[in-house]
Structure formats: structure tokens, C-alpha cells
């Protein structure tokens, strides 16, 4: 009950409800430790969502293009792992 937004609150209008919900989720709950390690998600989230430096355009793409064929069951083999390819008509 201590982390629930609605109990014990009153709202004058839908705009008031939205204002209180935004304040509760961004101020109160952002500062609350989460999970077993008790980490605070607020500062880490800010780092990941806007303050991180942009990736330089001259760096290579973070993926490799691999030429593979799909087997009769709809799977592709990549380094001893098999991945199902959706939309190939093969059995799943």
C-alpha cells in the first residue's frame, strides 16, 4: 500500500490527477530504491536517456551482415545456434 498512488488521494479534475501522478512518479518514486540491491533508478535513467554522448558516425555498425539460407523447417544456423525465421513458412 505504501507504493500505491491512488489510496487516500482526492482529485479536483482530470488535470489535477495527471499533475499529481506525474509528480508522484517523477519525484517520489524515482528516489525510492528498487529491487534486492536497493539501487535508485533515477540517476541511471537520466544517464541513459539523454546525457550519454552520441555515437560517432565514423564508427562501424554494431552488427554483422551474414549470408545464410533458411532450412526446410524455417531455421537459420549461425555458429552452432539455430534461429527461427518468421514468415518463412517453415514449421515452428
What is the share of helical residues?
25-40%
**First-to-last CA distance:** 44 Å
Shape designation: elongated
Structural class: alpha+beta
Strand content: 5-15%
Strand order of the largest sheet: 1-2
Quaternary structure classification: single chain
Rg on CA atoms, Å: 24 Å
Biggest sheet statistics = 2 strands, antiparallel
The succession of helices and strands, N to C, reads: HHEE
| Integer average pLDDT | 76
User: Could you tell me the number of beta strands?
Assistant: 2
SS field, number of helical segments: 2
Low-confidence spans: pLDDT under 50, at least 5 residues? none
Question: Any overview of this molecule?
Answer:
By secondary structure, the protein is of the alpha+beta class. Helix content is 28%, strand content 9%. The chain is built from 2 helices and 2 strands. The protein has helices at residues 14-28, 41-51; strands at residues 75-78, 81-84. The protein has a two-stranded antiparallel sheet. A hairpin with a 2-residue loop joins strand 1 (75-78) and strand 2 (81-84). It is elongated and about 60 Å long. The mean pLDDT is 76.
Amino acid at each position: 500500500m505504501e507504493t500505491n498512488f491512488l489510496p487516500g488521494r482526492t482529485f479536483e479534475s482530470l488535470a489535477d490527477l495527471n499533475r499529481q501522478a506525474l509528480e508522484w512518479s517523477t519525484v517520489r518514486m524515482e528516489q525510492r530504491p528498487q529491487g534486492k540491491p536497493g539501487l535508485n533508478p533515477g540517476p541511471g535513467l537520466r544517464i541513459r536517456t539523454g546525457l550519454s554522448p552520441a555515437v560517432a558516425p565514423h564508427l562501424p555498425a554494431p552488427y554483422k551482415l551474414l549470408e545464410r539460407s533458411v532450412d526446410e523447417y524455417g531455421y537459420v544456423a549461425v555458429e552452432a545456434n539455430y534461429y527461427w525465421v518468421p514468415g518463412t513458412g517453415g514449421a515452428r
